[in-house]
Amino acid sequence: SDVAYSLLMGLGLWLSLQPPDVGHPHGHRRIESLVSVVIGAMMTYAAWEAAQGGLRAWRGGQAPALTPSALVVPLVAAAVKGGMYVSVRRFGRESHSPALQAAASDNLADIVSSVVALLGYLGSRLLTPLLDPIAALLVAIWILRAAYGVLSSAVHQLVGGGGSPQLIEAIVEAAGGVAGVVDVERVILEHIGPKISVDIHIRMAADAPLLEVHRVSHEVRARLEELEEVEHAYIHVEPA
Questions:
Q1: How far apart are CA 89 and CA 20, in angstroms?
Q2: Does residue 74 or residue 64 have the better pLDDT?
Q3: Fold of 2-158
Q4: By the 8 A CB rule, do 225 and 233 touch?
Q5: What 3-state class would DSSP assign to 60?
Q6: Where are the domains of the chain?
């Protein structure tokens, strides 16, 4: 699954960075969100497999065999995934990449799965065989929870969901700080993949010269597109 995730992320990032064309005037950033949906679906399938394994072990009622690998493998997996999680999570946040953030969520799910599986294994040997299937079911629930977070965020981006109240506040503050802007009338935000497209209506003096209106609108646009989450800004000027 890790190889598949890496290939998907590489392909998705490459495609999403392709320049706009006639068929995709806003670019290809939504492809990265689509990759996140695929990763979320694969995580959901992994949760289903873990749940099925737990139910089979529950019906069997026997403790798993005691082997050195059953103790070492989960610890090694947790350590490796821990390093991957820290790195991928940092890169994902810095680049606002939904695919990398989805991969980080998958790494975290793997860490929790390894630790819980080890505890369930030890508990089934020392206490009762039922602890192993219980651990498997808990792992399934955790993975499903992580998959839901990945899928909900990616779908929100794919369907053009809006931005956060904090971003709206930052946009209003940036636009309102430009000399010549009397008021910000309306702000519409829409996700284009992981980035935001801004449609903003500002008010200026009704008798403002055309060149002044042109200058102000360009400055507002420049300030908004300096914001990290904003991809494009479209400015509409209304008379005050």
A1: 28
A2: 74
A3: Alpha-lytic protease prodomain-like (1.20.1510)
A4: yes
A5: helix
A6: 2-158, 165-239
Q: How far is CA 37 from CA 112, 146, 158, 187, in A?
A: 21, 12, 9, 28
Q: What one-character DSSP code corresponds to residue 135?
A: H
CA distance 198 to 28: 17
- Pick 109 or 214 by higher pLDDT: 214
Residue 189's φ and ψ, nearest 5 degrees, are: -115, 140
Largest separation between any pair of C-alpha atoms in the chain? 84
Distance CA 237, CA 209 (A): 12
Q: Which two tokens stand for residue 80?
A: 């490796």
Structure tokens at 35: 């990759």
User: Among 141, 67, 155, 81, which Cα is nearest to 111's?
Assistant: 81
Please give the CATH topology (third level) of the domain spanning 165-239.
Answer: Alpha-Beta Plaits (3.30.70)
How far is the CA of 124 from the CAs of 7, 68, 140, 166, 178, in angstroms?
Answer: 37, 15, 18, 48, 66
Other residues' Cβ atoms within 10 Å of the Cβ of residue 158: 18
**Amino acid 53: pLDDT:** 81
Amino acid at 140: A
Of 59, 17, 56, 10, the C-alpha closest to 35 is 10
pLDDT per residue as tens digits for the range 185-200: 999 999 988 889 999 9
144 residue type, one letter: L
Task: Decide if 236 contacts 200 (C-beta within 8 A).
Answer: yes
Helix (H) or strand (E) holding 212: helix 210-225
- Residue 238 is predicted with a pLDDT of 94
